[in-house]
Amino acid sequence: MKNYCFILLLTCSAFMASAQKKVTVGGVVKSKSNGETVIGASIKVDSVAGTLSNEYGFYSLTLPEGEHTIEITSVGMQPQYFDVALHRDTTMNLTLDDESHDLKEVTITESTGGRSLSSAQTSVEKLTMKEISNIPVLFGERDVLKAIQLLPGIKSAGDGNSGMFVRGGAADQNLILLDEAPVYNASHLLGFFSTFNSDAVKDITVYKGGMPAQYGGRLSSVLDIKMNDGNNQDFNVSGGVGLISAKLNVEGPIQKDKSSFLITGRRTYADMFLKLSDKYKDNSLYFYDLNAKVNYILGEKDRLYLSGYFGKDKLGASLGDGQGFGMDWGNATATLRWNHIFSSKLFSNTSFVFSNYNYKISIKTGAYDFRIFSQIQDFNFKEELQWYAGDRNTLRIGINSIYHTIRPGEVTSGDESTISSTALQKRYSWENAAYVTNNWKALDNLNITYGLRLSAFTILGKGDFYDLAPDGTVADTTHYNSGQVVKTYMNLEPRIAASWQFNKNSSVKASYVRNAQNLHLISNSTAASPTDKWLASTNIIKPEISDQVSLGYYRNLADNKYELTVEAYYKTMQNQVDYRDGANVYSSNNAIESELLFGKGRSYGLEVLLKKKVGRLSGWLSYTLSKTERQIDGINNGEWYNARQDRTHDIALVATYQLNKKWTLSANWVYYTGDAITFPAGKYQVDGQTVYYYTQRNAYRMPDYHRLDLGATCKLKETKKWSHELAFSLYNAYGRENAYTIYFRDNKDDASKTEAVKVALFKFIPSISYNFKF
Amino acid sequence: MLSCKIKHINRLGIVAAGLLLLTGLSSCEKVIDVKLNEADKKIVVDAVLTDQEGGCMVKLSKTKKFEEDNSFNGLAGAAVSIRDENGAVTQLTESQAGVYKHATLKGMPGKTYELTISVEGQTIKGSSTMPEPVHLDSVYIKKQKFFDEDEIFANVMFVDPGGIKNYYRVVQFINGVKSNVNFLLDDDLSDGKQFNSTLYFLPDDDKKKIKPGDVVTIEMQGIDAAVYKYWFSLDQSASGSSSSAAPSNPVSNLSGGVLGYFSAQVVQRQTVTAP
């Protein structure tokens, strides 16, 4: 019966639409308890899907004049209903209350799980901090990057590793943004932890395909992480102490309702234990990071945000007598943003972003005394307008301009050192983009998003640029002066997506996206290394380009308790970069291109996600079937070969069970086909040394990987004023010895034999952490 | 040289990860069975011409299956010759199956030599230029702290001649047994500098380390750029180690799609006893 009314209403409104006067209502959606803006809140009008709040909580609706019921829902929040009478364009800020913690089932709405059936956006994953908070983790360190690896199409770079591969892309093809600032190295401690302190994170959105036109510069994915703004209602202190790290978060109003601040810090202290042991007392190994943010509401229409991140890893080994090796690396980012609401229909954001990554190595041993420094630094300006042009069109128009400076390597040396001071030439480039995109509600059940991004990458002097002979050696060198344009690469990147909603419970969507990438990370090791090299495109290194189509089917099941997502994709990649065999990564040769090879890639797959969103038992099952290949002249005789991250099957099962008010239990199980790797086809002796003979690239497989993790959280006390809890986890609960690497060697006792050796890292890792909040 | 240092740093990273793991967990190593596909046997050339009489030796063999033993699988019946810049061709004679030698042939620094091998109906060619010798001033052995452990390492001292590219390979013998490591040095960032380099050697087995009283022989080879590349790429991607992302065959300076190298090199040796 209700459905009939619904259809009748739709039909009526469609007929009356042209006859009636339209008014616009717009504003910001906020949380009542802490004043944080709410991203992606679903706003319905008279039970009909309306809009979603944007990344700053802003929404705008164009409605027929008259009385309406507005319903807002968001994950972890109690739905709110407002009855409004609209007669003219109105500004209306909406507030939402946190969900109560009792166990009774909350009303289930389409948007409770965050995914929208009607939106044209495909290939997007969202995780809430609530979903992440109960997943059992390595060393008890909650980690947003590891959590998203449990979703289909996103693969972990290895055991305990925060690096990831999305839909067959390489690790450097993920655009990782923290409050709009690109983060060039998102890992700590050789990849075991990510740079994101989950306490400071508000929202994570991952685009695996169909990237909206406002994002560009990387081929495979966009990981958009937004930091909390800071509570503008009350002071809050929260923190935690775990086995290897401690963290503290302080936030509160500077001026209630108007401005707030947030500071979050984290430091590992594994090295403190090292200090206790005589053997390692002179060595250091730790990381820390600091997130800070302030924001000011300048009036009804303006808001300023200033946010920053600073993180550093330090590693040092003593060789005695004041000699030793040391290495430190880290990211720093700063973002200044200004939101301005021109009208309830027009929203503007202006951003100035600074981003820096560098590493330093110092070596003092014998006659060697030198330091190596390398850096990539960005100055970035963005302007975007969001124009809610009517009840059927929402436009985004923007520009982005980034100036990159790369210092590939500089050696400074002591006077007596064997090594001379030297520097590889700095590289300068200017990356510009303009985009326009429109969300068009073509029919009530047909949404189409179409847009275009024009990117221009200008390589600037000063510096020498090269022409190479076919064998890779330098044939000619051209010098460019400071500011002189070496070359500009222009790319038109179309972005198209459409959704067709069959009924209340199901829809299909399709998208096509092209991405261009002009910064390339090249690595010659399996593990993420802080010394992996960022290179900008040159006259020889062409922009990487990917084209991806995806098609998806989305269905809500059992009264919206479950949601099912099935997506298929096909992606091609051009101008992929790899090292030549025997490349010397650390040479003083400026013509790095002579050490590189270029080729292409392709990737396709099917992803299934079944999610249970509500109830005492929640969680998801994800499955990916996929294939990823590369073809590079000069590797594997120029034939297609499996990329290392080609894993046929990838399964993750994540479950959280709320036993009672005190205890929450959780478990996750992952299984995936072993990585494609290269094993020798034979061996031989050269100058008394065993050398391995290789025929095909990545023709073998590591053993299949699987692992079960268990977790439990015990709420010791929870009141409005203060709460604390203990979190237990057991990583790799059944002690599977997953192969981290496999290597080959002569048998220790009988050098006439060779053997294969498997190295496994994490087996039964228990951890406990204590978290508090007041 | 820099690359060697960086390799230490990477090794350091692995040690660091190890330290991290110390805090409550352990990594474990296990010998496993892997099923490897069989490939066609390939010819392997291990060819050296030195500046000393009797130093010329070309070893020909074929690749073996992984499960087979490591013994030398000599390839007999080849015609092996070395031609100098003046066109003089010297035939080598087979002293044992697969080992081709010449009692008196030696190379001259600065000259280029061409190796020609005819075997199994195939012709293999390669050329190499013998570098000017650089005097090995001294070899000494010193105890040094390494991660707060006392370790004994050999050190070499020499002065690199300025203005030209030089490449060195240093080989270490402990009581006559060759250590399974290549110390590769270059003057990329050290042109004309005094070298005083520690030969860091951390074998998987303590028995293979230098102990007081051991007789240590250091052989310093001056090699050309292509041979340096061969050893560099061998170390990087064909030594079986796990850190390389992409194992591959070393970059050879020989034609005919064979494995191995031909090096015209200058050689010096010094022997010291570990204190």
Radius of gyration of chain B: 20 Å
CATH 4th-level superfamily of the largest domain in chain A: TonB-dependent receptor, beta-barrel domain
Q: How many angstroms does the end-to-end distance of chain A come to? A: 48 Å
**Overall 3D form of chain B:** globular
Number of strands of chain B: 17
Q: Using the coordinates shown, work out and report the CATH topology of the largest domain in chain B.
A: Immunoglobulin-like
- The low-confidence parts of chain B are 1-14, 16-25
CATH class assignment of the largest domain in chain A: Mainly Beta
CATH level 1 name of the largest domain in chain B: Mainly Beta
Structural class of chain B: mainly beta
The CATH topology of the largest domain in chain A is given as Maltoporin, Chain A
Strand content of chain B: 35-45%
State the domain count of chain A. Answer: 2
Rg over alpha carbons of chain A: 27 Å
Largest sheet data of chain A: 22 strands, antiparallel, barrel
Please identify the oligomeric state.
heterodimer
Percentage of residues assigned to helices of chain A: under 10%
Written overview of the protein:
The complex is a heterodimer of chains A (774) and B (275). By secondary structure, chain A is mainly beta. Chain A is built from 4 helices and 52 strands. In chain A, the strands form 11 sheets. Chain A has a 22-stranded antiparallel beta barrel. In chain A, strands 1, 4, 6, 8 and 9 form a 5-stranded mixed sheet that branches. A 5-stranded mixed sheet of chain A has the order 10-17-18-13-14. In chain A, a hairpin with a 2-residue loop joins strand 2 and strand 3. The relative contact order of chain B is 0.18. Chain B contains 2 helices and 17 strands. In chain B, strands 2, 3, 6, 7, 12, 13, 14, 16 and 17 form a 9-stranded mixed sheet that branches. Chain B folds into 2 domains: 43-129, Immunoglobulin-like; 132-251 and 266-273, Immunoglobulin-like, CATH 2.60.40. The interface between A and B is large, with 100 and 96 residues.
